[in-house]
Amino acid sequence: MAIIRKKTGHFLEDFRVGQVFRHKGGKTVNEGLFNSFTEFNMTTNPLSKNREYARLCGFDDIVVPPGLVMLVVFSQTVEDISENARANLEYIDMRFGAPVYPGDTLEAETTILGVKPSSKDNDRGVLHVSTVGRKQDGSVVIAYERKVQVWKDDVEAPVESATLEDKPTVDCAPVLPPYESRRDYAAKAHLANSDTYFEDFTVGDVYEHSRGRMVTDEHIALTAQLDNTSQVHCNQHMIDQNPAKYIGGRLIIFGGIPFNLCLGISCPDIADNSLGDVVYTTGRHVGPLFAGDTVFATTEITATEDYADRDDLGLLSVTLRGHKFRKPKDGEEGPQKVDIFVLERTLAVKRRSHWA
Amino acid sequence: MAIIRKKTGHFLEDFRVGQVFRHKGGKTVNEGLFNSFTEFNMTTNPLSKNREYARLCGFDDIVVPPGLVMLVVFSQTVEDISENARANLEYIDMRFGAPVYPGDTLEAETTILGVKPSSKDNDRGVLHVSTVGRKQDGSVVIAYERKVQVWKDDVEAPVESATLEDKPTVDCAPVLPPYESRRDYAAKAHLANSDTYFEDFTVGDVYEHSRGRMVTDEHIALTAQLDNTSQVHCNQHMIDQNPAKYIGGRLIIFGGIPFNLCLGISCPDIADNSLGDVVYTTGRHVGPLFAGDTVFATTEITATEDYADRDDLGLLSVTLRGHKFRKPKDGEEGPQKVDIFVLERTLAVKRRSHWA
Amino acid sequence: MAIIRKKTGHFLEDFRVGQVFRHKGGKTVNEGLFNSFTEFNMTTNPLSKNREYARLCGFDDIVVPPGLVMLVVFSQTVEDISENARANLEYIDMRFGAPVYPGDTLEAETTILGVKPSSKDNDRGVLHVSTVGRKQDGSVVIAYERKVQVWKDDVEAPVESATLEDKPTVDCAPVLPPYESRRDYAAKAHLANSDTYFEDFTVGDVYEHSRGRMVTDEHIALTAQLDNTSQVHCNQHMIDQNPAKYIGGRLIIFGGIPFNLCLGISCPDIADNSLGDVVYTTGRHVGPLFAGDTVFATTEITATEDYADRDDLGLLSVTLRGHKFRKPKDGEEGPQKVDIFVLERTLAVKRRSHWA
What we know:
Three copies of one chain form a homotrimer. Chain A is built from seven helices and 14 strands. Chain A has 356 residues and is α+β, with helices and mostly antiparallel strands. In chain A, strands 2, 3, 4, 5, 6, 7, 8, 9, 10, 11, 12, 13 and 14 form a 13-stranded antiparallel sheet that branches. Chain A binds chain C through residues 1-8, 22, 24-28, 30-33, 35-36, 103, 105, 107, 136, 217-218, 220-221, 224-227, 229, 231, 234-238, 240-241, 251, and chain C through 30-36, 39-40, 42, 44, 46, 49-53, 62, 102, 188, 190-193, 202, 204-208, 210-214, 216, 218, 268-269, 292, 294, 296, 324-325, 335.
C-alpha cells in the first residue's frame, strides 16, 4: 500500500531541446464552448454570430474566432509546458491557418526550442517552445512560439542550457474563402459596422474602444472549460494557505481571458469586417487581472498593406492594448490606469470597394 | 494621427419617423445559448426540454421558448435604439410567429413610429418603435412595438416631434403544428403538469408560483450572451466613477433577465401545456433588479376564449407579475415586497379533451 | 376567484410501495449542458473531450460522462421524490447501461420500494426507491436505488410502513464497444494519461489527487441547468427568512455538484483510460458544501478483477472520497479537513497490453 500524490506538469530540468510533446486530451469545440467564449469576449464580427452571414462570405459554417482557437490549443499545452510556470513571458509569431468551425476537434503538439536557466535565480529559467494546433483533417489551424518562465523542482538539478539548431518550419497561413464577384455580399453588409473596411483605417490613429466589461469569478468556470489545469486560477484553498506566494494573494485570472476580451472589445471598431486574423507577431501580459476588475482596450493602427493576390483585402497591422484601473493610493487622484496586455496584430480586412 | 472614441448608439435628435434600422449582427441560436437561457429561466414546458416530446407535438425540433426569441431579437436592437436610453417604458403588442429551433438564425429590423421630446426635461424624450424579427427563411418569428425614453446628446439640438402616419402592418401570428388525432399524444402527456390544460383555468384565479430564484452576477455573462451592448449591465468601473448617476449605484440587471425568469417561474402552473405564446399586449419593468435579489412571480387569469378553427386549443389570457423583497426600513416589519415586472400575456393552451 | 399556491413535490404520507412515477420533463442533453458539466467537473478522459478519440475507441460520438448521465436522470426525480426531502441518505447499486451522446433524450421512472416512518421523529421518515433512466430508443442508460429522508406535510397523517415484496429487476449493464485488433488505438493513446491502464493499479494504494477546485455561486446556474427544482439551492430569500432552519444558514450546494467534481478531480489518476463506469455500489454525502469551498478528492484502490469475456479490460474497484477544509476553531491549528462525499465505484479500465 502506498500513498501516491502525482506531480503534474514538468519542471525546468525535465525539458530538452528538440523534445516533442503530443499533448493530452484534444478538444472538440462544441456549441456550448463556442457560446461561452464568443459571447463572453463581446466579439461583434458577424462571422462568429450569424451562420448565414458566414456562409455568404464563403465559409462552411459560423467561424470560431481566432481568440478561441488560440485558447483551445494553448490550454492543451498548459499541463506539459507551463503548469509549473512562474510567468508567461511572450507569445511570438502566432499565425492562423485553416478556419475552425463548431464541431471541429483540435489537437496540439509542442517542440522545445530552447532551455535557459536563470543566471540570477537558481530556482527557475526560461523555456522557449513552438506549438502547432491541427484539426481532425490534419490541417494546421494555428502555430506559434512562446517564452515562459518555469520553476525548477529541484534547485540542485542540472539544467540543459541550449537552443535548437534547426528550428522546425511550420506551414501556417490563413485559408480564406475566395472573393466571388457573383455573390451578393452587399445584401448582408449592414450586419457589420460600416466604418470598418480597409479604406477606413489611417496609420497612427488610436481607437479608444468605448465599451468595458467587468470580469467576475466566472473566470474560474471559463478557464475550466478550456481544460487549463493551472491551480492558481481555481484552487482558493491553496492560495489561502500561503497568499504571499501568489500575485495579489488571490486567484489570478488566466491571461487567455483578458487576451480574448481585449480582442472582443476592439472588434466593433477594428475587426467587424475582418475575414480573419493573420498573425500576432508578439503579445505579452503586462499586469495581472482579478475578479472584479473592468477591462478596457485601445488599438493603434501601425501599418496598412496590400494583401498579395487579393485585391479585395488589405492587411491591417495594429497594436492592441488592454488596461484596467486600480484604486488611488495616498496622494493619487482618482483611479489609476494599469496596463494589462499588449498584442501586435495583423488582420485581413475587407475592402469596401469589393464587399459593400 | 487622431484619437478616435466612437459614440455608440443613437440619441433622440438622431431619429426621424419612418426611418428603418436593419440591425447589426444577427444571431444563430446555438445549443449553448439555448441551454444557458432555457435552464436559467426555469422553463418546465417539455417542448423546450425534450426533443422527442416536441416532435410528437408536431414541431420539427426542440422549441426555443418565446422569452428567448424575444431576448435575441430585442438585444439586436439595443445598440441602434436604446444604448443611450434612460428607461425602457413599455413593450406593446408583442406577437409571436414561426417557431424557432436551435440552429436558426434571427435578424431584426426596426421602424421609428414616433419621436417626442419631453415637455419638461430638455435632455430627453420618448421614442416609439416597431421591431420585426425574422429567421433565415424570411418568416417572421416576432413583431412588437416598444416605447423607450432616450437621452439627447446635445440638449440644444432640434428634435423632430412627429408620429408616423401610416404605421406599417406586420403579418405575425403563431404558426402552430396541427392537431392530428392519429398521433398518440397521451403517450408523453405525463411529461407536463397534468393540471395545466385549458379546462383547468378559471378567470379571476391568482396563482402564487411557489418557486423563487436568486439572480447572481451571472447576469453579466447572460446579458453578454445576448449581445446586449448596454454598459450599465457590465461596466463596473463606469458605475464606480459616478454611482449617483445610476439607479441603485450598481450594475443594474438587464430587464430581459427578470422578464424571462418570471415566464419560467410561472411555467409549471400556467404554461406547461402551452403550444406557444400568442401575444404580450403590454409589458413594463416597474422596479430595478440587482445581483443578490430573489425573483418571485404571480399570475392572474384574466380571460379564457376559444381559439379560432382549433377545437383542441384555447386562448388563455393572464397578467404575469414579478416581485422581489427589500430589507425593511425603520418602522417596517420584515422584508417588503417590491414589484419589478408586469406582463399582459395570451397563450395557446392545449385542451385536455384532445391532448391527454 | 381563488388564491392558488400549489404544493410542489410529495410528502412521506403520499407514497405507497409499488407506486410508479413517470417523471416530468425528460431532457435532451444538448451541447450547452454537455459543455457546462464536462468542463465544470474537470473530467480528463478524452472520450468526453475529443470526438475523434471516442470514435476510434468504437463509440458513435463523444461520450456523455457517467456523472452527467446520473445528474440528468437524478434531477428529473427530484420534484416527485425529494423536493420535500430533509436529507439524501444513500445511492445504492447505481449501474450504467447504454452510452449517452450529446443529442440523446433521457427520461426517468421511479418505483417506490419502501416507506418507513421514523420511530423517533413523527415529522419524517425514510423512502427507498428504484429509478431507471432510458434514452429515446428505449435502452436503459442508468438504474439505481436511493434512500432519502422525507418530511411529512401533516405530522398526524398516517404513513404506510412497508417494503415492496417483489422488487422489480432492471436489466442494466454497460454497453461497451468491442475491442477490434485491427484498429490503431495506439495512434491516439497519448491523449490519455499513460499511467492509468489496468496494469498500473495496485490494491491498497491511495491516490491523493493533486488538483482542487473552488465552487462559486455558479452552483445555482449549474443546478438550474439540471432542472433540479429544490429551493434550498437557489432561493436566497427563503433562507434569509429562517436561516436557522437550513444547514449552514445558506444556500446549500446540490450534492450532485461535488459528486461530479470528485469524479472529475480523480479522473487523471484513475479514469483516464476507463471505457466506462460499471457500478457505484454505494455513495453518500457526508458533509455539506457551500459557495467558496474548495473541493479535493482521494481514491483508494479496493479491488482489481478480470472483466468477463473481455481480455482487453479489467474491473477496477475504488473508494472515491471528497473533502474540503474549514477554518480552525479555537485551539485547532490550521484549516481542518472535512469529508463531504464517499463513493464505492467500479470502472471498466483498458489494459495496456491491448490498447496502448
